[in-house]
Amino acid sequence: MGGFKIKKGDQVLVIAGKDRGKKGKVLRVDRQRGRVVVEHVNMIKRHTRPNPRAGVQGGIVEREAPIHISNVMVISPDSGRPSRVGIKVLEDGRRVRYAKVDGAILDQ
């Protein structure tokens, strides 16, 4: 897999699958598998055994499952529109990610 242009904390839109159209924040990026975990997207139920030492109560737990990175698009912070991501070098030498749809800088 190549270098991914989506990072933890990015606001993304799901563009494919059962949760298409949902927006959320990226919680984790799995670079080896090419997947991302987005909050409140691709929710699954897990039957969990109680573990008193770890403080886990047990029962049926609902949590996010990873989805493929190609199924999400970054949302531009300026216009709120989904966009592809480019990389450019600023005058001061910093490499930043930007939204191609309107040129908004994604990295602070």
Poorly predicted spans: none
Sheet with most strands: 6 strands, antiparallel
- Count, helices: 0
Strand order of the biggest β-sheet:
6-3-2-1-7-8
Per CATH, the architecture of the domain at 11-76 is Roll
Write down the overall mean pLDDT.
93
Beta-strand portion reads 35-45%
Which CATH class of the domain at 11-76 applies here?
Mainly Beta
End-to-end gap? 26 Å
Domain KOW: 5-32
Organism: Thermoanaerobaculum aquaticum
Function: One of two assembly initiator proteins, it binds directly to the 5'-end of the 23S rRNA, where it nucleates assembly of the 50S subunit. One of the proteins that surrounds the polypeptide exit tunnel on the outside of the subunit.
Family: Belongs to the universal ribosomal protein uL24 family.
Describe this structure in words.
This protein has strands at residues 11-14, 23-30, 35-38, 43-48, 59-64, 67-68, 72-75, 82-83, 85-89, 95-99. Strands 6-3-2-1-7-8 form a 6-stranded antiparallel sheet, with no helix packed on it. A two-stranded antiparallel sheet has the order 4-5. It has a two-stranded antiparallel ribbon with strand order 9-10. It is built from no helices and 10 strands. The chain has a domain at 11-76: SH3 type barrels (Roll). The two termini are 26 Å apart. By secondary structure, it is mostly beta strands.
Topology:
Blueprint: E1 11-14, E2 23-30, E3 35-38, E4 43-48, E5 59-64, E6 67-68, E7 72-75, E8 82-83, E9 85-89, E10 95-99
Antiparallel strand pairs: 1-2, 1-7, 2-3, 3-6, 4-5, 7-8, 9-10
GO cellular component, one term: ribonucleoprotein complex
Domain KOW: 5-32
Subunit structure: Part of the 50S ribosomal subunit.
